[in-house]
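Re: that backbone. Tokens:
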């Protein structure tokens, strides 16, 4: 619960329903099955309480990812009996949750990562926000957290982004990282569907991932742990998917690698890298045709918005030039063979944070697979081209349906 809005002393003698109506605590006992029709999000009931202590904005070049936050947060509470309560924008503040809240014990948490950009006319834009909302709904539903009307939530996020627009530097490469988060708040140690939940959105101004130009990364293929498996939850953006990845990431870092590459199965299928999807450009073994390959959506990888954008752009702009665009399974051996036979053109990661991250080499089975960059080169031509195409749509240089212009 938002601490300053919770008059604790007034909670004690009231009935749970009355409590909800007056102060909306986040940790409640669910009232069980209900016949009341649950309400969806109602953007018209938004209330805004502005901060009285606005923060100073940092010089853009001092921004560090996820370290500083804007003045406000958006929050909406949900109960199984009532549905979504009125949305609120309030000053950014601590949450106060009962220590028995199910989020702390059973990882009832799903989240998103998206950005707001400022275009050359100073207008705030979101990039394919409906995709993030659809993914959050899918992730939430997978762990019995509530779902919501995506369009209504985008309306609220847009209002929030507009309110915080002074935090978005109007320079290419800069943006406001938005973190929509859903947590189960029911106070119980029983393992079951949460009877109450909280959605909140916080935001952090960010600079370009590579402030001084691209720096190609080195990967370590992880063969002693798996991130996801068929029938699991690797395709959902759940908090529970991320904590277990840190130790393999630290192990890779210890040996001097930037990220670890997740393989799957005896065949060592290449899946994804850190918090990015992976793309490989190589010449096809049989035809010699150029092929852009990424792993298929088989449930073991996250359905990245950047991944989808790259595939779509490649089908539109590269396929007519003779490229094959493939979503298919490929193994670490396929990649190594292509490198050995001089067929590997480029490898790059793709995600909201960096857009694209060029890969120099991959450590696998004690050897180094060279991913095709020339000495001294930090990014391949295709990687740079794709970044430009995506940025043009994110910053509104190319007017496109992927860009959602926030009303002023
Ligand atoms: C595991 C994982 N894969 C891929 C991605 C890339 O997804 P997106 O392009 O939507 O940022 C992310 C980042 O959200 C991620 O956490």
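Recovered sequence:
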């Amino acid at each position: 619960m938002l601490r300053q809005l919770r008059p604790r002393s007034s909670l004690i003698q009231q009935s749970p329903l009355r409590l909800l109506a007056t102060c909306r605590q986040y940790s409640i006992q669910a009232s069980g099955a209900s016949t009341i029709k649950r309400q969806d999000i109602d953007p018209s009931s938004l209330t805004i309480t502005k901060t009285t202590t606005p923060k100073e904005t940092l010089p853009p070049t001092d921004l560090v990812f996820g370290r500083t936050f804007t003045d406000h947060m958006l929050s909406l509470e949900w109960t199984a009996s009532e549905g979504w309560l009125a949305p609120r924008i309030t000053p950014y503040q601590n949450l106060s949750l009962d220590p028995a809240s199910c989020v702390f014990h059973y990882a009832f948490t799903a989240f998103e990562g998206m950005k707001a950009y400022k275009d050359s006319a100073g207008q705030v834009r979101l990039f394919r926000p409906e995709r993030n909302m659809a993914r959050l709904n899918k992730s939430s539903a997978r762990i019995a957290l509530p779902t919501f009307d995506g369009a209504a939530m985008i309306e609220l996020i847009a209002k929030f982004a507009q309110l915080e627009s002074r935090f978005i530097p109007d320079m290419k490469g800069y943006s406001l990282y938005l973190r929509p988060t859903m947590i189960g708040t029911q106070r119980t140690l029983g393992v079951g569907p949460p009877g109450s939940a909280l959605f909140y959105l916080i935001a952090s101004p960010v600079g370009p991932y590579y402030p001084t130009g691209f720096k190609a990364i080195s990967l370590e293929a992880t063969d002693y742990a798996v991130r996801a498996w068929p029938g699991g939850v690797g395709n959902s953006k759940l908090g529970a998917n991320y904590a277990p990845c840190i130790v393999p990431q630290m192990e890779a870092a210890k040996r001097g690698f930037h990220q670890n590459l997740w393989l799957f199965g005896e065949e060592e299928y290449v899946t994804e890298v850190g918090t990015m999807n992976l793309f490989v450009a190589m010449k096809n073994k049989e035809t010699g045709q150029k092929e852009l390959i990424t792993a298929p959506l088989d449930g073991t990888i996250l359905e990245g918005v950047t991944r989808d954008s790259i595939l779509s752009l490649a089908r539109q702009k590269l396929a007519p030039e003779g490229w094959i665009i493939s979503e298919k399974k490929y193994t670490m051996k396929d990649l190594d063979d292509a490198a050995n036979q001089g067929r590997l053109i480029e490898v790059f990661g793709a995600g909201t944070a960096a857009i694209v991250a060029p890969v120099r080499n991959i450590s696998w089975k004690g050897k180094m697979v060279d991913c095709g960059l020339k000495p001294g080169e930090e990014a391949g031509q295709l990687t740079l081209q794709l970044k430009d195409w995506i940025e043009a749509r994110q910053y509104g240089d190319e007017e496109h349906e992927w860009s959602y212009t926030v009303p002023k």
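Residues 259 and 274 are 6 Å apart (CA to CA). Residues 129-142 form the longest helix (14 residues).
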